[in-house]
Design brief:
The structure holds two protein chains of two kinds. Chain A is α/β, with parallel strands linked by helices. Chain A is built from 19 helices and eight strands. Chain A has three domains: 223 residues, NADH-ubiquinone oxidoreductase 51kDa subunit (Rossmann fold, 3-Layer(aba) Sandwich); 85 residues, Ubiquitin-like (UB roll) (Roll), CATH 3.10.20; 90 residues, de novo design (two linked rop proteins). Classes of the chains: A alpha/beta, B alpha/beta. At the A-B interface, helix 15, helix 16 and helix 17 of A face helix 2 of B. Bound molecules: flavin mononucleotide, iron/sulfur cluster (2 copies) and FE2/S2 (inorganic) cluster.
Chain lengths: 431, 772
């Protein structure tokens, strides 16, 4: 299936839309005045719900439904928080939206703010996205100057402003409650849930948290109608999704596809230009590094939430990491576990210590210093970490290892025998 | 156990559920761990500490199985629900608990043989009870430099830390000193302060008590004893009138450590201690400790034994041709006071007994209004502090007030001449010294408008403003829901008052030449407020018999000095500022040349020919309980380990105990004298508390400093109608202008020299003595 560049306007326009004029010329800021003039917040929430839009940050929770969880009678101010921490390895879609189309995100956040009666929106952007944060800052200033943020938007009674807040380089700050802690100026660590952010989020107030890609989808949904969006894709996975393809492909990059219409094979071989000559697909982490890998046998899986779940993995953030047969899944697995060990916030014991234990075991396997007992120990550890942690980070560390063991037994057997040699350097790829 | 919250199984709204096959109940909202514990089922925990705050779910130690819920649940954060089916000992739950312990021990150094915590370590105990007994971890362990000095009093062994965050949460949420944090993340997480400086603050020692492993240990206690070498005795802190319940650790006849009670007294300290209460014992010995009796006569001064000293004391007291004065200090116990009264009624018939303290009459009406224990502060919606600086003078009250604000959303108002240590959480209503009455009137209006107000009032400041005290008494009784808590000035002031002992009369009699000798019991009038007057009155040839623990100005001049045991060494009863009679217990043996104060007084009775009918402290108290209405029926049994609340005194109690009416005048600056536990004599004696040691100062606001044309490099001489003192200047923001703030109880007793014996309103002239 071809790409559908219809939700994210920089794709449709085929060029960056970093000034307000550009964004307006591309059709921007038509949804907001329409909503403010014609709809009440509940109707707007209902539109979101009808569109079937699901959260693009990883969990895929229906966006409209989450908005409806915010208490209507709270005495406290409400907030919209845009999760722009985008730290999942292999994921770089939010970056494109913020860098090339910041106003669509601002308009989306403002629409979400109106729908829940929020007083302010925050964009929590990962510290490394320095340039993108500047683009956003500039866009916010321009929108404010143009009366698109501030008091009495479009002569309505709706007051709303947006603050851009830069994180300091922690993966865990993408987890929604750790993000809120960090945004409040505290150490970024997940909170015990319940209460959920919808009830007690930022500063203990009702808070709607969504991913950049989720919020940026709202303006076109409002303009073209929920039915239009719901009509794209499958019944349970409507709309389009940006997949970030990286790894051993000839044309890495972002590709916006209609959910359910494109297979993994098409994504890799048609859109991302296929592999290096003579190579075959070894493993693909379709939804970011936290999802279980797929193998060559799964290439015909359609890219939507349900089909990927049936194949044993998750759509996740859409960060599709492709690995060809030139390397060992064992070493890659070690690399991923090292990432999780390094990023474990340290709040809960099974993750803090368990990821370190897994890493040490895997390192010995890669070094050829391990025996079958160690593999058994590794498997035993899964059960002692999985399901026992405070947040899903540890699950993201365990799942991929567990599946890698199941799908690639030969790699592991070989590693136990011989260790894993350092891989050959990559060939240059086309732009 | 402090680890688990108290559960009231008789409360309304019980929820019934199944626990390991049994039908049990607990009030709705109770966390499963607490409900289990109340029913005799221990679910192991590490991070949960209900006194610190709500559960955080960090350690994952408390995993249990709840039917119908996916995976294992953390019992510390799962409230009981009707008909839930809970298994804490099923194979799945056990695997969860074993798994977490294996993982916690993975990087733990297991250096128990050299760890101070070994033998009293929750990690050890729970590993034995709930662990798998064997580790499968063969990789290298993580290392940190060890041990680090987190502060001058606390050592941090980061390798032992299990990242339960209790210490960090204590610092952030209980003491709210904003200092401790976890640095780095994951397995590299480390406890440190934000600034990287030492963790020096007023309540830091509590993190040692809450640490479930040996990561935080007391430096003075490092390698001093193993848990099987020690005995622990429940006692009460005798350093301020709050009366925090403590535990004394005894080894080789000495107190080696003071900790919070493992089973806290929730009506008093809730298990917390201030650092002076925890480490002040360190100053109980030291060079000023009296270890031998002294007799001074025409032949000069000689050291002697107790029997000889008591005989000499008898001669001095019996030889007096006029009645004897008996002066009780603030730490004299109820027993000692009662025996002294008995002597005054018999052996020393006609003796005049008084206490060093504040006259009772101006405060009697206020004391008669409905009173609260400290736990009531948590349930208040408005907490008002009238006068004083409780964080310094009655330290533990500060933690309750902070809890009321942070955890329960109470409104905290401080009224007086300085915002004090609560400035960051309170609304401060400024009232210049002498101007409390108007502020109290304003407060009265606010009290009327709230549901459950608690008013804490400063004994010294309200005694100095009787009109304000009266207005406050009225405001408290006007609304049936209001409760008051006295912020007392003297450790056992309430106990001495309960026996009807006045603060006035003795000095006046002495000055009038009516007394023939003076017996002091833990009293140093020459360092007390009004010390200049006391010194003048003692100038003549009045013999003084002093019962004291440490050398002081009075023992330096006394005819007979009899060393007595300190409140760490002898039995006794103290009555706290909230009217709780509580027992101090014998934790240490004390110097061989000292005896319990009560025993010395009984011996004096024997020598004077009127032996009391009892021989023990316990019997002395029981006898007193039969005689004095204020402590009616009081016995050691009645007090148990947690103490009992005595009835409130009547509004006409000690009606005659009033100092002379005093107009404050308007010359000079108002003198505000506060007791500061951290700056006091006891703290300054303790090497462990060196970080608090600072010279006494005359503290003024920047505007006052400018008006006086002084800087904090200058030394000033303060002159009042009662005496003079010179002190270095300190300048602090937020204080009343036209006032000088000084600290009572410091070693040099400078502030005391400026004051009359009843402490009441004083104004001072200021002159610059030295400029640097
Ligand atoms: C360890 C961890 C990291 C996460 N990182 C991100 C992230 O970088 N960006 C993001 O949008 N969501 C991230 N999430 C998911 C968020 O917790 C949350 O579900 C999401 O922001 C909700 O937005 P959505 O409903 O629009 O997806 C992460 C979750 C976990 C457990
Ligand atoms: S699972 Fe890991 S990242 Fe999540 S709370 Fe626990 S330690 Fe932190
Ligand atoms: S030092 Fe002790 S109290 Fe602090 S986090 Fe570590 S184990 Fe917990
Ligand atoms: S005690 Fe329950 S998670 Fe720590």
């Amino acid at each position: 299936m071809p790409l559908l560049n219809s939700v994210y306007r920089q794709r449709e326009a085929g060029k960056p839309l970093v000034t307000l004029d550009d964004y307006r010329a591309a059709g921007g800021y038509q949804a907001l005045p329409k909503v403010l003039a014609e709809m009440d917040p509940d109707d707007l929430q209902y539109e979101f719900m009808r569109s079937g839009l699901r959260g693009r940050g990883g969990a895929g929770f229906p966006m409209g439904k989450k908005a409806s969880f915010l208490p209507k009678d709270s005495q406290r101010p409400k907030y919209v928080v845009c999760n722009a921490d985008e730290s999942e390895p292999g994921t770089f879609k939010d970056r494109e939206i913020m860098e090339f189309n910041p106003f669509q995100l601002l308009e989306g956040i403002t629409l979400a703010g109106y729908a829940i009666g929020a007083v302010r929106g925050y964009i929590y952007i990962r510290g490394e996205y320095e340039h993108q944060a500047r683009v956003l800052d500039r866009a916010v200033a321009e929108a404010r100057a143009a009366g698109l943020l501030g008091t009495g938007l479009f002569k309505s009674t709706f007051d709303f402003d947006i603050t851009v807040y830069r994180g300091a380089g922690a993966y865990i700050c993408g987890e929604e409650t750790a993000l809120l802690e960090s945004l409040e100026g505290k150490r970024g660590q997940p909170r015990l849930k319940p209460p959920f952010p919808a009830v007690a989020g930022l500063y203990h107030s009702p808070t709607l948290i969504n991913n950049v890609e989720t919020l940026a989808a709202l303006p076109p949904i409002v303009e073209k109608g929920a039915d239009w969006y719901a009509g794209l894709g499958t019944e349970k996975s409507p709309g389009t999704k940006i997949f970030c393809v990286s790894g051993h492909v000839m044309r890495p990059g972002n590709y916006e596809i209609v959910l359910g219409e494109t297979t993994l094979r098409e994504l890799i071989f048609v859109h991302a230009g296929g592999l290096r000559p003579g190579r075959r697909v070894k493993a693909v982490w379709v939804g970011g590094s936290s999802v279980p890998p797929l193998g060559e046998q799964h290439l015909d899986t359609p890219l939507d939430y349900e089909a990927l779940a049936a194949a044993g993995t998750m759509l996740g953030s859409g960060g599709c990491i492709v690995m060809d047969d030139s390397g060992s899944v064992v070493r890659t697995t070690l690399r991923l576990v090292t990432f999780y060990r390094h990023e474990s916030c340290g709040k809960c014991s099974p993750c803090r210590e368990g990821t370190s234990w897994m890493e040490k075991l895997l390192q010995r396997i890669v070094d050829g210093q391990a025996g079958p007992d160690d593999l058994e120990m590794l498997k035993a550890l899964f059960g002692r970490i999985s399901g026992r942690t405070l947040c899903p980070l540890a699950e993201g560390a365990v799942g991929p290892v567990r599946t890698a063991l199941e799908l690639f037994p030969d790699d592991w057997a070989d590693a136990l025998e011989n260790g894993v040699p350092v891989p050959e350097p990559m060939l240059p790829v086309s732009s | 156990m402090a680890d688990y919250a108290r559960v009231d199984l008789d409360a309304e709204n019980q929820v019934t559920f199944e626990l390991n096959g049994r039908q049990v109940s607990a009030p709705a909202g109770t966390m499963l761990v607490d409900a289990c514990y109340a029913h005799g089922v221990e679910v192991p925990i590490f991070c949960y500490e209900p006194r610190i705050g709500p559960p955080v779910g960090a350690c994952r130690m408390c995993l249990v199985e709840v039917e119908g819920m996916r995976g294992l649940q953390t019992a510390c954060s799962t409230p009981v629900r009707p008909d839930m089916v809970v298994r804490t000992d099923s194979p799945a739950a056990k695997d969860g608990q074993e798994g977490v312990l294996e993982i916690l021990l993975m990087n733990h150094p297991l250096d128990c043989p050299v760890c101070d915590k070994g033998g009293e370590c929750p990690l050890q105990d729970r590993s034995f009870k709930f662990g798998g007994g064997k580790s499968r971890f063969f990789e290298g362990k993580r290392h940190f430099p060890k041990p680090l000095e987190l502060s001058s009093r606390i050592a941090l062994d980061q390798e032992r830390c299990i990242s339960c965050f209790r210490c960090v949460r204590f610092s952030q949420e209980v003491a709210q000193d904003g200092q401790l944090t976890m640095q780095e993340r994951g397995v590299q997480s480390q406890i440190t302060t934000f600034s990287g400086d030492a963790y020096e603050d007023r309540f830091t020692g509590n993190i040692i008590d809450v640490c479930p492993v040996g990561a935080l240990t007391s430096i003075p206690y490092r390698f001093v004893a193993r848990p099987w070498d020690i005995t622990n005795t429940p006692s009460v802190c005798g350093l301020c009138p709050v009366g925090c319940n403590t535990e004394l650790t005894l080894r080789d006849g000495d107190v080696k450590r003071v900790t919070g009670r493992p089973d806290p007294n929730y009506e008093v300290e809730e298990g917390w201690l201030c650092d002076v209460g925890r480490w002040g014992f360190d100053g109980d010995g030291g060079i000023t400790r009296l270890t031998r009796a002294i007799v001074r006569d025409a032949n000069g001064e000689r050291h002697t034994d107790l029997t000889d000293a008591v005989a000499a004391a008898t001669v001095a007291l019996r030889g007096a041709s006029k009645p004897v004065g008996v002066l009780l200090g603030a730490t004299a116990t109820v027993e000692e006071a009662a025996i002294a009264l008995e002597l005054a009624g018999g052996a020393l018939a006609g003796a005049r007994v008084a206490r060093l303290g504040i006259p009772a009459a101006p405060l009697a009406a206020l004391r008669a209004t409905p009173r609260a224990q400290l736990d009531e502060i948590e349930r208040a919606d408005l907490v008002a502090v009238v006068g004083g600086d409780p964080g310094l003078a009655q330290p533990i009250t500060e933690l309750r007030m902070r809890k009321a604000v942070l955890r329960n959303g109470a409104r905290l108002v401080t009224i007086g001449s300085r915002p004090g240590t609560l400035a960051d959480v309170a609304t401060h209503v400024h009232a210049a010294p002498g101007a409390l009455t108007a502020a109290v009137a304003e407060l009265a209006a606010q009290i009327g408008a709230t549901g459950r107000p608690v008013v804490l009032w400063d004994e010294a400041e309200l005694a100095a403003e009787p009109a304000a005290a009266e207005a406050l008494a009225e405001a408290v009784s006007a609304n049936g829901a209001t409760r008051q808590i006295e912020l007392g000035a003297d450790v056992n002031g309430a106990g001495l008052r309960a026996l009807g002992i006045p603060a006035t009369g003795l000095l006046e009699a002495l000055e009038a030449g009516e007394l023939g000798a003076l017996l002091t019991v833990r009293a140093d009038p020459r360092s007390a407020p009004g010390r200049v007057a006391w010194e003048a009155a003692l100038e003549g040839d009045v013999p003084v018999v002093a019962l004291a623990t440490h050398a002081d100005r009075t023992t330096d001049a006394a005819t007979v000095v009899i060393p007595v045991q300190s409140l760490l060494e002898q039995e006794g009863t103290l009555v706290s500022m909230t009217g709780r009679a509580q027992r101090v217990r014998r934790g240490a043996e004390g110097p061989a040349g000292a005896a319990p104060g009560w025993e010395v007084l009984i011996a004096l009775g024997h020598h004077l020919g009127a032996p009391p009918a009892y021989r023990t402290a316990s019997a002395a108290l029981a006898a007193a309980g039969g005689r004095y209405a204020g402590i009616e029926g009081l016995t050691y049994d009645a007090m148990g380990v947690g103490g009992v609340e005595l009835p409130r005194p009547a509004a006409d109690h000690l009606a005659a105990d009033a100092g002379p009416a005093r107009a404050a005048g308007s010359d000079g600056l108002a003198l505000v004298a506060t007791r500061d536990v951290y700056g006091g004599r006891e703290a300054s004696r303790a090497p462990a508390l060196a970080a608090f040691h600072a010279p006494a100062a005359a503290t003024v606001s920047p505007a006052t400093a400018a008006a006086l044309d002084v800087t904090d490099a200058d030394t000033v001489t303060l002159t009042s109608p009662y005496g003079a003192a010179s002190l270095p200047v300190r300048i602090v923001d937020g204080l009343s202008d036209d006032a000088v703030f000084v600290t009572l109880g410091t070693a040099d007793a400078a502030a005391e020299a400026l004051m009359p014996p009843d402490r009441g309103p004083v104004r001072v002239g200021v002159s610059v003595e030295a400029r640097r």
